[in-house]
Design brief:
The complex is a heterodimer of chains A (281) and B (258).
Chain A (H helix, E strand, L loop, with lengths): L10 H11 L17 H20 L11 H14 L1 H33 L1 H14 L8 H8 L3 H25 L3 H9 L4 H38 L5 H10 L3 H29 L4
Chain B lengths: L1 E11 L2 E11 L4 E5 L6 H8 L7 E7 L10 E4 L11 H7 L8 H14 L15 H14 L4 E5 L7 H18 L2 E6 L2 H7 L2 E5 L6 E6 L13 H23 L7
Parallel strand pairs in B: 3-7, 3-8, 5-6, 6-7
Antiparallel strand pairs in B: 1-2, 1-4, 8-9
Classes of the chains: A mainly alpha (281), B alpha/beta (258).
């Protein structure tokens, strides 16, 4: 602005009008990547995938031997349910995974607590866990069959082993995540060890343990199917290998769907437990 | 009861946190411990309460606690240390259950502790539902429930906003007024120390040593009176001058080794 013009505006008025000229709205800059729930999108993704599947198979674009249509898979599933074959296989699998997962989890949580609590058990246990955890437990099945026989024992033991290690790790890291000041608080009130374990460490570690259960359930399902493929008369793995050998791909896909539903149901149960037990968070 | 800390030395690795600290509190006395951050005052209190093991030195308790005392020396923590999965009542019950009191006595102690801290209406609330001040009241209720003879208060007001701090300081003074327990009160706030303490122990920073122990000669009830403010201010200046230089150094220092 030329000074020579010597307008009657004072300096501060000039500054003010210049400031007014630069007035503008502040744009929203983002709220920190908040994830919102969009149920319809999830449903759409599922429906879309099945529709695409029906489209490529129903039009004969892909041979039904390689990929049967969803409709044929549903029909195969229905037949299996009606004849009772489905239940025979599913119940055999459920018994194995039930025993295997429970045994593996009980021992895993107990060992995890020990490693979380005591210097000696951590020093001894942690390197062992680190060394044994990466072994695919299905590789041990032949050995376990030699030890325990071809029957249920070897399959249950393989599942239990594959569940044990993730449970140990989830439990001790859960215990590690419990604030030490809560433990010191309990100790300062002379609360006995077993009560500290049950009322401070276990509830504090529960979130980590439940997250571990999700992983161990997936591991159990994997090993279950693999073990049943190797030597079982009934069970989902046995069913899958049988139908595969006979090129009954519609029945095979039906079996795959059942395995998926089984896994989904189990993780829904864990999700329910999380909502119930972790309400205090 | 009395508590005496004698020749406490504490080392973390090659770092000496406390160097030959001796301190005692008589029966019914409130001793404040102040010092710049990192001087080891919380460490000293942890040692006093038996949840930290000193490298050298002893903690001695003298006297006989009241017959209803379950835990003669009890903490009130800066972070409240409430179990977040238990409601207010159960947080108090947690420190009582292993004493096998019988249901009636258990409930009586819980009700009494909640009543004294004005928490009776919040018995089933979870910690996450409570304000900071209310959480610390739960911490106080929990300590009251075991009827301790000695309270160890580790910066009990530091996590609270200024208004709440005022209210809780009055609560703590009322608590002392009723039973006259012995209190070791750690704080970094010298005004708080002047309000509450009979004596103020000033620690130097790293290694923590007792720099000076200062009497607060004004009766506790008169410390908020306008006519005593000149004396209070003078004590405040004295305390601040004792810790100021070291607070400046502490402020310009890395907190931890990498």
């Amino acid at each position: 602005m030329p000074i020579a013009s010597s307008s009657r505006m004072s300096d501060s008025a000039v500054a003010k009008s210049a400031a007014a000229a630069r007035e503008r709205k502040l744009a929203f800059r983002g709220g920190g990547f908040v994830i919102e729930q969009r149920t319809w999108m999830s449903v759409l993704a599922f429906v879309g995938l099945i529709a695409l599947w029906q489209l490529v198979t129903g039009t004969g674009l892909v041979s039904p031997i390689f990929l049967p249509s969803p409709a044929r898979v549903v029909r195969a599933l229905w037949d299996l349910a009606v004849t009772g074959d489905l239940w025979r296989h599913v119940s055999a699998s459920l018994v194995r995974i039930g025993y295997g997962w429970t045994i593996g989890t009980l021992f895993g949580v107990a060992f995890g607590l020990m490693i979380g609590l005591f210097t000696v058990s951590r020093a001894v246990g942690l390197p062992l866990v680190a060394a044994l955890f990466p072994i695919p437990k299905i590789a041990l099945l032949p050995l376990l069959i030699l030890w325990l026989g071809i029957g249920e024992g070897s399959k249950v033991a393989t599942i239990a082993l594959s569940v044990f290690f993730p449970s140990v790790i989830a439990t001790f890291s859960g215990v590690d995540s419990v604030p030490r000041n809560l433990i010191r608080m309990a100790q300062s009130f002379n609360v006995p060890l077993w009560r500290i374990v049950l009322q401070v460490l276990v509830p504090g570690a529960l979130a980590g343990m439940l997250a571990g259960f999700r992983i161990s359930i997936a591991a159990a399902l994997l090993v279950l199917v693999a073990a049943e493929m190797i030597g079982a008369q009934y069970g989902l793995g046995a069913f899958l290998i049988l139908t595969g050998n006979m090129m009954q791909t519609d029945r095979l896909m039906a079996g795959v769907v059942v395995v998926s539903v089984l896994g989904l149901t189990m993780s829904l149960i864990v999700g329910f437990l999380e909502r119930r037990l972790l309400r205090w968070r | 009861m009395e508590i005496a800390l004698s020749n406490i030395t504490h080392e973390f690795g090659d770092l000496t946190a406390l160097d030959n600290v001796s301190l005692h509190a008589h029966e019914g006395e409130i001793v404040a411990i102040i010092g710049p951050s990192g001087c080891g005052k919380s460490t000293l209190l942890g040692i006093a309460g038996g949840i930290l093991k000193p490298t050298a030195g002893d903690v001695v308790l003298r006297g006989v606690p009241a017959p209803d005392t379950l835990n003669e020396i009890t903490f009130i923590f800066q972070d409240f240390s409430l179990l977040p999965w238990l409601n207010v009542r159960d947080n108090v019950a947690f420190v009582l259950k292993h004493h096998k009191l019988g249901a009636a006595e258990l409930e009586r102690r819980i009700a009494d502790a909640l009543e004294r801290t004005n928490l009776s209406d919040f018995a089933i609330a979870l910690p996450k539902q409570l304000s900071g001040g209310m959480r610390q009241r739960v911490g106080i209720a929990r300590a009251l429930a075991v009827r301790p003879a000695i309270f160890l208060m580790d910066e009990p007001l530091s996590a609270l906003d200024a208004q709440t701090r005022e209210l809780l300081l009055d609560d703590i003074l009322a608590l002392w007024q009723r039973d006259h327990p012995t209190i070791l009160y750690v704080t970094h706030n010298f005004q708080e120390a002047i309000r509450i303490a009979d004596r103020v122990c000033v620690l130097s920073r790293r290694p923590g040593r007792v720099r000076e122990i200062i009497d607060i000669p004004i009766p506790r009830a008169e410390r908020a009176n306008p006519e005593r403010q000149a004396e209070v201010a003078k004590l405040g200046e004295r305390l601040w001058s004792l810790i100021k230089e070291e607070a400046i150094v502490a402020d310009r220092e890395l907190v931890a080794h990498v």
